[in-house]
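wait is this the right file?? whatever heres the structure
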């Protein structure tokens, strides 16, 4: 049956109505019949193929809440991908995330719903760029944000996420490091440590569009507004934020505020869908949404996820020589994380 022929009938309604409760806060009931047939079909196919779906925090709620088995930030997805006993992994995120899942699961089939789901930050640097930096700074370790291609990871000493970057940089015990590719994350790490940071000038097209003026404008209306910012944001944004951290750290901060205040108002300086997905856990929190969308993350849709599982497309492969070297940098990151 073609995906365009999927009916919304009594059996689909009975199967998916309990699932709808997870997204009722962001998806109107009238829209549910459009999503439910895909949700039911995807969940059945997952069981048949022994598949799991990994979803980044920035996915739309109908993916994040209804078909995803593992959700979280880059570190959480990498660590959980390494633990899964599924035969098939469908990565609802962007291509570099699927490559990371493949690196830690070389014997499993890893699929992406849309091959065009790329990343401006990952595209800002190549393996050749890293080799040139090593020539310019001989002996200086290369610390690479996980938001990069396998080719770049293969040229690196260790990977990091926004949540563990400072910890790993300091654990290396070196006076200076090359930190790639996000310039703003590198500057944030540099502000927190005495280690010299040599940065690359890559940026995330979502986070770089936020400004300190945005925060000031929102605070004019509500001076008590709590601002949480991802460290990929520019320095003037981070300087005005009440908390700076990874998406996992932001989620935990929201949880703490939810328990402390009856009706906190929180501004999330990150991708739009993050607020939708966190709000399900903390209904008493009012989210103010400046809302910059990631066009790459939004390439993932329920019909594409279903097609990916039906046709077993599009499979992520990495050349063996690249994979072996890239895996070492990811494994080293995971080893640092397991020490906590």
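ok assuming it is, sequence goes like this
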């Amino acid at each position: 049956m073609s995906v365009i022929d999927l009916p919304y009938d009594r059996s689909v309604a009975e199967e998916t109505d309990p699932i709808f409760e997870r997204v009722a806060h962001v998806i109107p009931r009238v829209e549910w019949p459009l999503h439910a047939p895909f949700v039911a079909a995807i969940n059945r196919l997952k069981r048949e193929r022994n598949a799991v779906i990994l979803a980044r925090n920035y996915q739309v709620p109908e993916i994040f809440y209804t078909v995803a088995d593992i959700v979280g930030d880059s570190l959480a997805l990498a660590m959980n991908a390494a633990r899964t006993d599924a035969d098939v992994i469908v990565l609802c995120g962007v291509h570099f995330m699927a490559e990371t899942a493949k690196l830690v699961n070389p014997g499993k089939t890893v699929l992406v719903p849309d091959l065009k789901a790329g990343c401006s930050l990952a595209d800002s640097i190549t393996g050749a760029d890293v080799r040139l930096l090593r020539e310019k700074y001989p002996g200086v370790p290369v610390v690479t944000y996980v938001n990069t291609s396998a080719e770049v990871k293969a040229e690196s000493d260790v990977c990091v996420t926004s949540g563990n970057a400072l910890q790993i940089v300091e654990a290396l015990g070196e006076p200076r490091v090359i930190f790639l590719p996000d310039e703003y994350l590198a500057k944030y790490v540099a502000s927190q440590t005495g280690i010299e940071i040599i940065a690359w000038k890559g940026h995330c097209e979502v986070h770089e569009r936020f400004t300190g003026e945005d925060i000031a404008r929102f605070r004019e209306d509500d001076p008590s507004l709590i601002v949480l910012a991802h460290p990929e944001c520019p320095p003037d944004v981070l300087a005005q934020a009440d908390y700076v951290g990874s998406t996992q750290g932001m989620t935990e901060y929201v949880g703490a505020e939810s328990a402390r205040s009856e009706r906190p108002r929180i501004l999330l300086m990150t991708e739009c869908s993050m607020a939708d997905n966190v709000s399900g856990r903390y209904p008493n929190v009012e989210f103010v949404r400046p809302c910059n969308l990631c066009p790459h993350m939004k390439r993932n849709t329920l019909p594409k996820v279903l097609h990916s599982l039906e046709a077993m497309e599009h499979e992520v492969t990495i050349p063996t020589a690249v994979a072996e070297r890239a895996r070492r940098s990811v494994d080293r990151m995971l080893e640092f994380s397991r020490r906590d």
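The first strand starts at residue 51 and ends at 56. so i think its the right one actually
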